Amino acid sequence: MIALKDVGVSVGGKDLLTSVWAELPRNALTAIIGPNGAGKSTLLNAMAGGISPTSGSVAFDGFRLANMRRFELAQRRAVLSQNLELPFPLKVEEVVALGRALKADTEVQQQRVIAAALERARASELAERVFSTLSGGERQRVHFARVLAQLWEPIERGEPATLLLDEPTSAMDMHHQHLLLEQLQKLARNGLTVCCVLHDLNLAALFADHVWALKNGRLHASGPTDEVFDDRLLSDIYEMPLVTINHPQRASQVVVAYAMTG
After folding, report:
1. Taking the CA of residue 3 as centre, how many other CA atoms within 13 Å lie in the half-sphere pointing to its CB?
2. What are phi and psi of 166, to 5 degrees?
3. What pTM did the predictor assign?
């Protein structure tokens, strides 16, 4: 479990996060939402250990993140960032194999995990492709397979682990967005703690168990999705008129925007 205690992040004299107190719910899918510049990626990066808080602290399972060895952390936490570029002409299988870099795999074991991770990510047909030739959405699916490969042991055994993803569906078509988030839901039900930044409010409404809503670097609201997805609260966060209505087929909400005037 990741706990943030009075976390602040400042860069070049600008406050990107201010006094964030939160605990990531275990065995659930948490979505981080908010307008551009709200601090979503910065918050995820601080939780991942990629950036050190200017104030406060981040703890992972009770241990201060800054004091944990990276090898130990990599066994229980994987991160999918927005940066999908690779400097070398690697095949897709080789990219996914990067998730096994710290494992003492036999070749047979590694190939089994790579194939299974690609299948879960709906990317098996890309295995022999060169990564640089892929579209943005295809690259996201491959990197999703990579982080699945990294956490394959806890995934298979149903053991605790944490998966952090920064806008994992941003370049995907609607079909693959839903497939990926359905997979994240299943992983959360089977023992993983999952947190992802999402821009699409309706994807968050449909798939997230919990929501953290940021505005101007502050945690404006947090809680179960149906509580955070309140008309007045969302309208305040995004500074535009928004309403929620019941989904016609599922027990979730749909966010609708009114036309802005003036």
Report:
1. 6
2. -105, 105
3. 0.95
